């Protein structure tokens, strides 16, 4: 899993970590966290789960967005846990937090209330318009091959947040698919095309941050477009690992590797025991 | 009115086979001991309402207490899958389960409508979701103010709700802090209400901080002291969560026979929650110890 | 982010002529000083949303700040009538007032829909009431679950909400206790939010008791320290209500000219709230002294 | 305002207080409070304003309904104020109370939530079916002769409580009317006859307690019937003072005067400074 310096201009293999300017070995988690944090510049209120999104928001607070505030699904805002939380309902989030809202306030007034700038979500499947499936794999909805956790608050985050950032640890054709087995959280295009229901407040998925690069989409009817690859990633590989005919930006960029400062913050200040920085 | 009673007495008095029973608590102050007592007393054909599932859902399923589930998240938090539940849904093994599925926002809205005695609650998030397409109980109404039709979810009015909290007085004024979930709404929505608590305290403690009361006495039928009643979930200011227990459950429950063995030994083989806790051993709980962090008192004083 | 500013600065920054402005607080923690500052700055054509009216409604009317009122109770609590308001409604004197009337339950539902970004909220209490017949904004929708059509009230989304509370940190995490009214919903429903408080406290105080926070910082635009900002209404733990002031107002306001004199002398003739309080004299406030009654601290501790 | 013993068998004048078995002088407030308290037997949860209803519930707690609980519109339950509150939003209600609910809980979960057994209301006008007007006097709704406070929570109490007790200090044809100028809080009959809206949960007004006697009504379509007069009150006077053709029960009773125990509780324990016992 180590990477020698001469590999940087070549297409690296999937399981190899990328490299930083300081020649440190950067894990996939670190890479995803750093790019998630950078994408938070200019945003104020973030709805996030534990793990990478929490780390990304913490890093953003130390770098691009000092005043950014994180809201957890458990109703906690302004948490300052002494150690990384183990889940969004870890009671370690509560001592010293700025507020704990009852669930009616969190779901009605904050999420549906359109108070969130960016919601972080994960998914089992995503399609080209940023529709998400976290419910099931298989064709028979009543007897799926694999039953997944379901929405939780994902549907509300998608509908209420101004933007959704999707973090996917593994960019593969099984997760980036042409057609979802189940549309749990519809993106803005699919929602707009439906016949019934309130229009979603935001743009749906605007950033997908994967181990290969970054896809973005800005307008409702726009497809996710590969706008950046990580150093050493061949854009053709990203296209191959995507289950639809992925559009590649004519201005395709190579992401700037994590800086020594970013890595030092992550490793020494934010997750020194490497709970999430696997 | 003194509403205190034992857990077996409360469950046998207020639960009936076939009831819809809500067990709420969002990874914190969860009525686990009450769920175990439901298993001990052998209730059947229950429909369980629970936003975020956890080990007790698998345990109630394994014990054949449930014919149905109303939920919005069916994993074992961050600890893995609930395999007893997955067997029921994926393979109808050992039999089919009626599963009425919503998002968290939809469950919140259902409890809120139930507590408010409204037939339904509007919800803005379901446009374009297959969840609404799949569930015929998610409907829509026109917007008389000119917007598009809006989705609605029906009121949820459990026959019995059980919640767990830090403390209550003997009359049933319930106080809780930390992450609160949907307990207040589940309590008001229900026809009957049992509250288990870490401690029954003198009413003077409750009355020193009336804004801390999450459920007032007149809604409560029974108050039960059950220390460590939320294990393996945490209780703020009392004990931490037992993640190892939850993870071990997700491993164990891959094997249906192991679930039966576990229930036989640990639940049916113990007479009550204290005996169940004793099987874990007292050292077990040292890992769940907490430090103290007291709130700054506020002044409730009125005119002299 | 430091959101503290002076009251004049907060009002001039976040209020515009013609705005719908909600001033909430149910006989307790009422933003009276903020209302007075609106008068001082001479705003006009405002629509005031306020569930339970009181002296500030008469004062804002007398100062010609309001073109409309959204309310559900238009007396001066138990102190009598609001005569400036009655002259407007009964005799269009000096000019008509647009009055959008609901019940308390209807106002609660309107704010709740506004906070939740729903177009409307169902309400079960209006069947057969002339209030629903009189107000074309109270409509109905069919019940897709088979019940009768149900009334709905439209979302209320003020341009600006102002609330008063015991304390906040400089970031805008607001804490209040005692009778809470509809402040949280009015805050979330609004496009802009000013919070006046008795004290701005160190964030460590707020963070020692996060369940006490009624409005989180990200909803707040400005935090203003205004001691005695609720007078003549009470603030739990700070000072008692001044019933004599309220009663005297109901007597004084029978005479429209006296209202103008009072505003000229006491509001327009004072530069700020401190100067207004000084006109009452310091002995005046001895009657409003309270005794102390502190809450029992609760333990927020987590794992060590 | 005093009353000599020989008057007890005669029809007393309106402004004279009635008499007790112990020959104490009983004020109108005391009389109304005692009969309100007695009517609370068997009830558990009461929604009440300050003043007489508060006193009545306190008296009931000491006599016919020891476990009865009072809920105030300000969200306070289980209040134990050291002195009588001056209004339902008097912060003296809070220290030592059992709970203070936010207004959403009070209006949605308690009142609309049908958790109230008895709601006490007053009104400017009441008609034979217990419809109440607290909004305006006059024929032009937009420019009434006299604009009253409006509903407050009266509409919600009427619709949500199992029963409403109406306390009217002065029984006159101006307040007991054939036709209301405005139906603020419709009774169960009028509500049922309307075409739109949820059916009310309870029976509407079941008891009207006045300075002349007590009217009751039990079924939805039943008119208020005079079922009792206070000692010394001619039932014909109650009929004369009612703006509709008041039905008088064939089993008309004379109310039992306040007992010495009831009066002692009211005067010495519950309102010793006579804030409400005018």
Element layout with pairings:
The complex is a heterotetramer, with two copies of chain A (278 residues) and two copies of chain B (304 residues).
Chain A: E1 18-19, E2 25-26, H1 28-39, E3 45-47, H2 52-62, E4 69-71, E5 76-77, E6 99-100, H3 103-111, E7 118-121, E8 125-126, E9 132-133, E10 136-137, E11 146-147, H4 154-160, E12 163-168, H5 188-193, E13 205-210, E14 213-216, E15 225-229, H6 235-240, E16 247-254, H7 260-270
Parallel strand pairs in A: 3-4, 3-7, 7-12, 12-13, 15-16
Antiparallel strand pairs in A: 1-2, 5-6, 8-9, 10-11, 13-14, 14-15
Chain B: H1 7-14, E1 20-23, H2 32-40, E2 46-49, H3 55-62, E3 66-71, H4 83-91, E4 98-101, H5 104-115, E5 120-123, H6 130-134, E6 139-141, E7 150-154, E8 160-168, E9 174-175, H7 183-189, E10 192-200, H8 203-207, E11 213-215, E12 222-225, H9 243-252, H10 256-268, H11 273-280
Parallel strand pairs in B: 1-2, 1-8, 2-3, 3-4, 8-10, 10-12
Antiparallel strand pairs in B: 5-7, 6-7, 8-9, 9-11
Keywords (chains B, C): Transferase
Pfam family, one (chains B, C): CoA_trans
InterPro entries (chains B, C): CoA_trans_fam_I, NagB/RpiA_transferase-like
């Amino acid at each position: 899993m180590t990477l020698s310096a001469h590999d940087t201009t070549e297409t690296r293999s999937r399981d190899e970590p990328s490299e930083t300017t300081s020649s440190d070995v950067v894990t996939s988690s670190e890479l995803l966290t750093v790019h998630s944090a950078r994408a938070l510049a200019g945003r104020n209120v973030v709805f996030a789960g534990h793990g990478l999104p929490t780390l990304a928001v913490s890093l953003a607070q130390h770098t691009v967005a000092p005043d950014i505030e994180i809201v957890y699904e458990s109703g906690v805002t302004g948490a300052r846990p002494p150690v990384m939380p183990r889940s969004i309902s870890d009671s370690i989030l509560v001592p010293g937090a700025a507020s704990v809202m009852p669930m009616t306030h969190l779901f009605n007034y904050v999420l549906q209330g359109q108070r969130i700038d960016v919601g972080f979500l994960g998914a089992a499947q995503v399609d080209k318009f940023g529709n998400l499936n976290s419910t099931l794999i298989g064709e028979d909805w009543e007897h799926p091959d694999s039953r997944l956790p379901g929405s939780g608050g994902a549907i509300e985050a998608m509908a209420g947040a101004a933007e959704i950032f999707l973090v996917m640890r593994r960019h593969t054709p099984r997760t980036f698919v042409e057609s979802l087995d189940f549309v749990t959280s519809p993106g803005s295009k699919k929602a707009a095309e439906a016949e019934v229901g309130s229009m979603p407040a935001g743009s749906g998925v605007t950033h997908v941050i994967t181990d290969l690069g970054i896809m973005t989409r800005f307008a409702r009817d726009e497809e996710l477009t590969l706008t950046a690859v990580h150093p050493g990633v061949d854009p053709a590989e990203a296209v191959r690992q995507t289950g639809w005919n992925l559009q590649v930006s004519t201005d395709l960029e190579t992401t700037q590797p994590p800086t020594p400062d970013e890595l030092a913050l992550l490793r020494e200040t934010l997750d020194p025991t490497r709970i999430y920085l696997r | 009115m003194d509403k205190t009673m034992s857990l077996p007495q409360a469950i046998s008095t207020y639960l009936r086979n076939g009831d819809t029973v809500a067990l709420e608590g969002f990874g914190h102050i969860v009525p686990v001991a009450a769920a175990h007592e439901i298993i001990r007393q052998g209730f059947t054909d229950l429909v369980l309402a629970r936003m975020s599932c956890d080990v007790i859902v698998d345990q109630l399923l394994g014990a054949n207490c449930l014919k149905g589930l109303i939920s919005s998240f069916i994993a074992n938090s961050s600890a893995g899958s609930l395999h007893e539940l997955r067997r029921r849904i994926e393979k109808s093994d050992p039999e089919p389960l009626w599963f009425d599925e919503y998002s968290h926002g939809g469950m919140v809205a259902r409890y809120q409508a139930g507590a408010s005695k409204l037939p339904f609650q509007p919800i803005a998030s379901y446009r374009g979701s297959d969840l609404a397409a799949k569930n015929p109980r998610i409907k829509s109404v026109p917007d008389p103010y000119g917007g598009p039709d809006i989705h609605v979810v029906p009121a949820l009015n459990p026959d019995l709700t059980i919640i767990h909290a830090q403390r209550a007085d003997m009359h049933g004024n319930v106080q809780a802090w930390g992450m609160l979930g949907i307990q207040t709404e589940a309590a008001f929505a229900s026809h009957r209400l049992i509250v288990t608590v870490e401690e029954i305290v003198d009413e003077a403690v409750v009355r020193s901080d009336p804004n801390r009361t999450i459920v007032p006495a007149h809604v409560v039928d029974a108050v039960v002291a059950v220390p460590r009643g939320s294990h393996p979930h945490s209780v703020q200011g009392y004990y931490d969560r037992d993640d190892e227990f939850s993870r071990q459950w997700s491993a164990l429950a891959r094997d249906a026979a192991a679930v039966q063995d576990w229930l036989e030994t640990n639940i049916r083989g113990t007479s009550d929650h204290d005996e169940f806790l004793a099987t874990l051993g007292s050292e077990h709980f040292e890992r769940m110890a907490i430090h103290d962090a007291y709130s700054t008192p506020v002044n409730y004083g009125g005119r002299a």
